[in-house]
């Protein structure tokens, strides 16, 4: 079995159809040594020097090992948030869902889509997708224009509207406000009693609270005079933010962002911030959890830092080789261009240098650096595929089937949950009444015994 045949054999089924042709076309032109030739040269001691000069091309891993890791960070307050979403839907005019531009598939929560499809108002409710952290994509290995064209084609398949923005950039916030005002003008002839209301949803730590504060700050800045801006600026932080997932735990009150002074209080524009909602373990997988970990959408202590660093190394090597070394003028890890490796411990050793740091601490620091500020890597491997190699519509169809099984099993049925809760409350009340009666009977019996004893 020669070198190219080995590559064909070990390509995983999940991405074989996508990477095979491009990888093999690159490797056919590379002078390689077949196993039989290498064995002959190894046996010939006179050709040792020639054999050492022949350098095998670096081959990244095509498949990441399936480690036994936690598959969910789905907590009780997230289930409560889903129930509150359903209650708020009749009052809403628009939904804004935030996703991380580095992981557009993994940070897409199909629980929201399923919830909307099960409501009567889904046809009249406008929805906008916002891909956040645009600044972390500026130096991606892929051509940004090609990446954007790919997203446009994918979203056209399912008739979705989206924009890419930085939630801290005033120009992007102004563009979003123009879109919101344009949507509001559609309802201006028949305004709702509670005004134009928008719910902001998404996975944990994708920038929902940051966007809420930026919209509020933009509205406050336009509503106040320049001399009073510093005084008003203190009141623009209406949502708590942080670098960790799960900072927001409950749905906020309605926050006015309308900057039109002529608008009445009743007919203003309001947003509602919400906690991030993840996925239950039954519809999650190892790769998605690792991607969410790199994007900061789950607690960083749920997965071993070495495994996180290893997955990051897997993505770096895969993308750097597929897109070509010349694209990256800087190394993504020490020696990533001249001496790439698939050994995570070797990479951690290079990162540490002479510093006295253990592997876990170094892995946490390296991953967190990429999570917060480093640019150039896409966390979803599917984004490396061409549009004809990956169908977003088929992918969403398969994922939706998993969610429908949860609803059919009653795990995500809010009505069933409410009924069960009510039944439990009734049982608790009955049990409480019985307990009180037993205590009362016991007390009476005790008093009678005391009386008999005294007499």
From TrEMBL:
Q: Where is there biased composition of kind Low complexity? A: 43-53, 418-433, 445-455
Please name the Gene3D superfamilies in this protein's record: P-loop containing nucleotide triphosphate hydrolases (3.40.50.300)
Q: Does the keyword S-adenosyl-L-methionine apply?
A: no
Pinpoint the G domain residues. 197-331
Sorted alphabetically, which keywords does the UniProt record give? GTP-binding, Nucleotide-binding
Q: Name one GO molecular function term.
A: GTPase activity
Recorded GO cellular component terms are: mitochondrial inner membrane
Looking at the record, which segments are called Disordered? 35-57, 418-455
A single Gene Ontology biological process assigned to it is: mitochondrial large ribosomal subunit assembly
Pfam families found in the cross-reference section: MMR_HSR1
Report what the protein is called. Answer: G domain-containing protein
Question: Where does this protein come from, organism-wise?
Answer: Naumovozyma dairenensis (strain ATCC 10597 / BCRC 20456 / CBS 421 / NBRC 0211 / NRRL Y-12639) (Saccharomyces dairenensis)
